[in-house]
């Protein structure tokens, strides 16, 4: 009887197998976290046929290869074996942690027979072999196992190749060739044959971590020398990295720190950190005190989860010195601690000297006003710096020594007095207005002054010579409303500068206001609301041609100035009990003064309102119920009242001889709820501010 292979629809490739594993359908060997899986490059896929022993049958990766006995369409029997060569170059120098050979069964002659496909390592070959010239069989690796034993044909058969490929790697081989065959006892049995495709090797490998770098001791980077450290329990630091990251985002590393006395390596101490991520700067503080003046060394290596270990880092050497330097000293011939000397802008020399007996001081740290800088110590234990004061008066310079281990001495403070050298400024017209020229006399505060340099505000610098008496006269015209600054410096014939004088000139430009209705200004008891008032504006600078003014935040108004620079306006206020006046002035060329403001109080005379039927802020009456409202005056002489309800029309009612008036109002059915009655009193043509009387019309009973 002839046995033929049954076709199988759409079988899995290796990528499908990986999907099965991810879904939990395949149990692949577990390994420590390593680099992500990849497939080894396949340089040969082929099979041989014993019926044509001299012919090679190369295939592409997805091509089907017959394994074992099979019948052709004419019924002739053939026996075949598959050959596959894989390139190992990518794994060179790396630790192979897992390797799985996998394939897909495309068809099976007889699914009732136990499956048997052997995996052999054969001599490496790059060319498709023939049956007659097949590569030598070297090692039987094992048999392929199914992911799901009951499935036939199987979508995924696999074999563990980890031990084999690690052995091949140790041999130094760059490729491996595998053979697939049916066991010899069944190789001639057609019922044991099958066809396979998508033969590949999925590999996981792991590279050793990089040699740790960025070694330092208590923040001091390691060099070829032996840095000195100012603590007996220094902090050792190193950065660890692994090139497998970020390809393997789960890569974790540990670091092993080792330290020992250089001349006693047998006293080596090691400490291993907990796991951390790549790129971490690890810190380890030596737990027990190290001896002083003894050279030590430390080194670090890294280990990943797969057990791959880097080489030890280069040794970092250091020594311990915790002895603080003595207090240094400061001397200066230019600025001694006695008397008043030099001046702002005049540099002086200051000599720093280490304390007697100190031989390992390497630098000084010094400064004035808290601005500190470092300077190295000379071979003789001293250094001289130049410092130029920027102000007069007492100044204090601070100084501290630092030794080779950066141990710091106590601070010494050196106080010296800087002479006042800024020129004296005598203003001959201190009350001058803006733009008015002022004569200024400049006098020296130093000997042998030959010139002055001056500038107004941010203006240009001008230099003038000093007279025989050391003085000079200049003319300045303040050009800013408000604050102006005149700056002056002097210089001697030997080019010594003085300090900078700053003369403050305040030039008032704000206009002022007077009113016969407010004789005491803002302290006056003002006239009644509604009475016309007169306001007169006065200039605060020469050349005023107009005023810009507004009251109670209403629109701005402009009024021209009279020949004497003043302007007079009138105003009648009916809505507020005050006048908030904002005022500026301008010249013909558009220069505007600084603003001024006034707050003047008016006398309120809003009337009072009474109603028995509709009391204020209360509920009363109702639709159809007439209410009587009585208006009472706030000032004598009231002649009438005007009133309106809500936004209704304004109505007028005359006052009686006692100054009161009454009016009535009957709400309609649609006028329940809140209402506001607004009332003003009139004394001749003077109208008061408004009284607002709020009331609530009651709902009809039963509504």
Can you characterise this structure?
The protein contains two helices and 52 strands. The chain is mainly β and 703 residues long. It has six domains: 14-206, Jelly Rolls; 213-320, Immunoglobulin-like; 339-356 and 363-418, Sandwich (Immunoglobulin-like); 424-507, Immunoglobulins (Immunoglobulin-like, Sandwich); 512-601, Immunoglobulin-like; 608-697, Immunoglobulin-like (Sandwich), CATH 2.60.40.1930. The chain is flat. Residues 1-34 have low confidence and may be disordered.
Shape: flat
Q: Per CATH, which architecture of the largest domain?
A: Sandwich
Q: Identify the CATH class of the largest domain.
A: Mainly Beta
Kindly state the number of beta strands.
52
Mean model confidence by pLDDT: 92
What count of domains describes the coordinates? 6
CATH topology of the largest domain: Jelly Rolls
Cα-based radius of gyration, to the nearest Å: 52 Å
Task: Describe, in short, the structure shown.
3% of the residues lie in helices and 45% in strands. With 703 residues, it is mostly beta strands. It folds into six domains: 14-206, Jelly Rolls, CATH 2.60.120; 213-320, Immunoglobulin-like, CATH 2.60.40; 339-356 and 363-418, Immunoglobulin-like (Sandwich), CATH 2.60.40; 424-507, Immunoglobulins (Immunoglobulin-like, Sandwich); 512-601, Immunoglobulin-like; 608-697, Immunoglobulin-like.
């Amino acid at each position: 009887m002839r046995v033929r292979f049954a076709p199988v629809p759409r079988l899995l490739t290796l990528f499908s197998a990986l999907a099965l594993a991810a879904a939990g359908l395949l149990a692949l060997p577990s390994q420590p976290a390593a680099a992500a899986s990849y497939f080894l490059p396949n340089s040969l896929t082929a099979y041989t046929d014993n019926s044509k022993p001299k012919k090679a049958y190369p295939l592409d990766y997805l091509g089907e290869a017959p394994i074992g006995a099979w019948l052709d369409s004419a019924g002739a029997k053939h026996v075949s074996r598959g050959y596959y060569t894989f390139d190992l170059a990518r794994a060179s120098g790396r630790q192979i942690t897992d390797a799985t050979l996998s394939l897909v069964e495309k068809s099976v002659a007889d699914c009732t027979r136990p499956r048997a496909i052997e995996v052999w390592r054969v001599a490496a070959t790059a060319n498709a072999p023939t049956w007659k010239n097949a590569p030598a069989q070297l090692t039987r690796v094992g048999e392929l196992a199914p992911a799901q034993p009951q499935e036939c044909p199987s979508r995924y058969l696999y074999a563990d190749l980890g031990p084999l490929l690690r052995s091949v790697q140790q041999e130094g081989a760059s490729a491996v060739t595998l053979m697939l065959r049916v066991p010899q006892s069944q190789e001639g049995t057609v019922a044991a044959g099958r066809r396979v495709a998508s033969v590949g090797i999925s590999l996981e490998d792991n590279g050793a971590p990089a040699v740790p770098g960025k070694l330092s001791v208590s923040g001091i980077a390691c060099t070829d020398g032996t840095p000195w450290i100012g603590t007996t329990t220094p902090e050792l630091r190193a950065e660890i990295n692994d090139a497998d990251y970020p390809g393997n985002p789960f890569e974790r590393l540990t670091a092993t720190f080792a330290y020992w006395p250089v001349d006693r390596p047998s006293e080596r101490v090691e400490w291993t950190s907990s796991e951390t991520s790549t790129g971490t700067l690890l810190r380890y503080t030596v737990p027990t005190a190290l001896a002083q003046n003894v050279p030590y060394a430390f080194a670090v290596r890294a280990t990943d989860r797969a057990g791959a270990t880097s080489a030890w880092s280069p040794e970092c050497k250091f020594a311990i010195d915790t002895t603080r330097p003595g207090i240094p000293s400061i001397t200066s011939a230019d600025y001694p601690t006695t008397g008043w000397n030099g001046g702002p802008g005049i540099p002086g020399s200051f000599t720093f000297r280490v304390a007697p007996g100190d031989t390992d001081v390497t630098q000084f740290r010094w400064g004035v006003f808290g601005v500190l800088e470092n300077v190295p110590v000379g071979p003789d234990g001293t250094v001289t710096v130049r410092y130029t004061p920027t102000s007069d008066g007492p100044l204090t310079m601070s100084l501290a020594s630092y030794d080779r281990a950066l141990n710091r001495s106590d601070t010494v403070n050196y106080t010296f007095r800087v002479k006042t050298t800024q020129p004296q400024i005598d203003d001959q017209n201190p009350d001058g207005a803006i733009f008015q020229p002022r004569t200024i006399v400049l006098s020296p505060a130093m000997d042998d002054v030959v010139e002055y340099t001056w500038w107004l505000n941010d203006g240009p610098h001008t230099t003038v010579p000093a007279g025989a008496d050391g003085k000079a006269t200049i003319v300045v015209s303040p050009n800013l409303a408000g604050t102006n600054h005149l700056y002056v410096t002097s210089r001697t014939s030997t080019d010594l500068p003085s300090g900078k004088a700053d003369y403050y000139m305040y030039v008032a430009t704000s206009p002022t206001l007077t009113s016969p209705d407010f004789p005491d200004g803002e302290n006056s008891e003002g006239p009644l609301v509604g009475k016309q008032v007169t306001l007169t504006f006065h200039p605060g600078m020469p050349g005023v041609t107009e005023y810009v003014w507004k009251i109670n935040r209403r629109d701005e108004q402009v009024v021209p100035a009279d020949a004497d620079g003043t302007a007079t306006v009138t105003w009648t206020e009916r809505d507020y009990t005050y006048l908030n006046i904002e005022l500026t002035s301008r010249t013909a060329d558009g220069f505007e003064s600084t603003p001024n403001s006034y707050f003047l109080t008016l006398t309120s005379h809003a009337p009072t309102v009474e109603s028995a039927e509709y009391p204020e802020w209360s509920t009363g009456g109702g639709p159809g119920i007439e209410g009587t409202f009585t208006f009472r005056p706030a000032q004598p002489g009231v002649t009438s009242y005007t009133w309106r309800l809500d936004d209704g029309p304004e109505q007028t009612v005359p006052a009686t001889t006692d100054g009161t008036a009454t009016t009535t109002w009957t709400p309609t059915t649609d006028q329940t709820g809140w209402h506001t009655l607004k009332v003003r009193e009139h004394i001749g043509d003077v109208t008061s501010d408004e009284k607002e009387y709020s009331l609530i019309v009651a709902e009809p009973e039963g509504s």
